[in-house]
Amino acid sequence: MLTESSRAADFPSLKGIHYLNTAAESIPPVCVNEAVAEYMHHKSLGMRGRDFHFPRVEACREIAARHLGLATDEVSFCSCSSEAYNLLASALQLTPQDEVVVTDLDFPAGATPWLTAPASSRPVTHVWKNQQGALALSDLAPLLNERTRLVQVSLVSFYNGHRIAYAPLRDMIRTLAPQAVIAVDVTQALGRVALDCQDADIMISSTHKWTLGIHGGGIIGIPQKSAARLTTSAGGWYHIANAFDADRFENPRIKPGALSFSVGMPSFAALYALNASLRYLENVGMEKIIAHADPLVARVHAGLQELGITALSAAQPGCSSGIVAFTHANTAAINDALLAQNIHVMHQVGRIRIAVHGYTTAEDIDKLLATLRNMM
Questions:
Q1: CB–CB of 91/113 below 8 Å?
Q2: With helix as H, strand as E and coil as C, how does 190-215 read?
Q3: Cα–Cα distance between 252 and 241 in angstroms, integer?
Q4: Mean pLDDT of the residues in the chain
Q5: 80-137: pLDDT as tens digits
Q6: Cβ-Cβ contacts under 8 Å for 108 (sequence gap 6 or more)
Q7: Among residues 343, 301, 306, 344, which one has the least CA distance to residue 326?
Q8: pLDDT at 320
Q9: Is the pTM above the cut of 0.70?
């Protein structure tokens, strides 16, 4: 991943392209392709395949827990981050007397469950708004009080790459809103930056971005201290401890905390893939990925500044992320010029987003900046 030879061996599909769009879709390493093929082999065994499926889920739980900094029984899986947030809503059982805080840098999955709830149960939702691409604690403080039941943030924003300083955020919430659950979306962080939010009440991530997995998975981490409070009431079977016992209709018993978020049959293909991708990242070493990729992010920031382009979130030395984004009047033309050079970024009307991972090279960044320079 970090050298020319390992990159060529592990990511052959990157040959001839400059891929800077991991924040939307990652390129899985070869071992993930092999893991999915292994799942299909096991699936072809019919019922006997389950002898392999369920142990692989437990192996994935163990490696995911290591990456999150939690115990294995504090981690579980569902189908995607959107499902995880809706299950969180069912666990919280909020009312119109409760208050929720979300940010305008959050992905919709973490913000919409509270906004779209039926009027009879919809909590009061406050939006913590960014100022010049950053979230200031001074703007959060007035939104917190004794009625606050949830503060939802992203450790790294999908929109502009802003990374929250977690410790002071946590301390403020615990002081001003002691009843609040702290929920952290780590989708744009897990697999790319060192996590520092292990004492959040819940961490949620998708599996197809920086973790280098595939679609169909969602990761949930809930420490034991928050398990009783964050046990979903959703129906299902896989999260029911006595799902097939004689008393299942009289007294269904839901497994506590994170385990309650796996309500149905696991998405085995996604978890085979995730098990392989997280072990791949562990073998490479997160510290090596950070040491390789962070200077490239800094080079993007410096290069944009040289071109007179202001990033949507300022460089954060010592608190970096893998994302740099900017707006421009001619983003469609810029994206066309980048694609002509086989440079792949995320383009939405008015915004370009650049993502730098361990398989990104200095040549990728130089090519990006040279193409932008020709457009300015």
A1: no
A2: CCCCCCCCCCCCEEEEECCCCCCCCC
A3: 8
A4: 96
A5: 999 999 999 999 999 999 999 999 999 999 999 999 999 999 999 999 999 999 999 9
A6: none
A7: 301
A8: 84
A9: yes
Share of the chain above pLDDT 70, in %: 100
Tokens read off for 281:
């990242």
Angle, in degrees to the nearest 10, between helices 331-340 and 362-375: 130
Task: Report DSSP state, residue 376.
Answer: -
Tokens for 275?
């098990």
SS3 145: coil
Measured over the CA atoms of residue 233, residue 117, residue 107 and residue 271, the dihedral's sign is positive
Please identify which residue in the block is written with the tokens 């061996």. Answer: 9
Is the per-residue pLDDT at 202 higher than 90?
yes
Q: Is 70 left (phi over 0), alpha (psi -120 to 50) or beta?
A: beta
Query: Which residue is listed with tokens 């390992």?
Result: 6
State the CATH architecture for 33-282: 3-Layer(aba) Sandwich (3.40)
CA distances from 164 to 88, 123, 170, 308, 353 (A): 22, 24, 10, 26, 18
Would you kindly state where each structural domain of the chain is located, as residue ranges? 4-28+285-375, 33-282
Q: Which helix (H) or strand (E) holds 58?
A: helix 50-68
4-28+285-375, which class in CATH? alpha beta
Residues above pLDDT 90, as percent of the chain: 97
Question: Which pair of tokens denotes residue 55?
Answer: 């142990």
Residue 258 per-residue DSSP state = G
Compute the distance between CA of residue 281 and CA of residue 289 in angstroms, rounded to an integer: 8
Quote the CA–CA distance of 293 and 286 in Å, as a whole number: 10
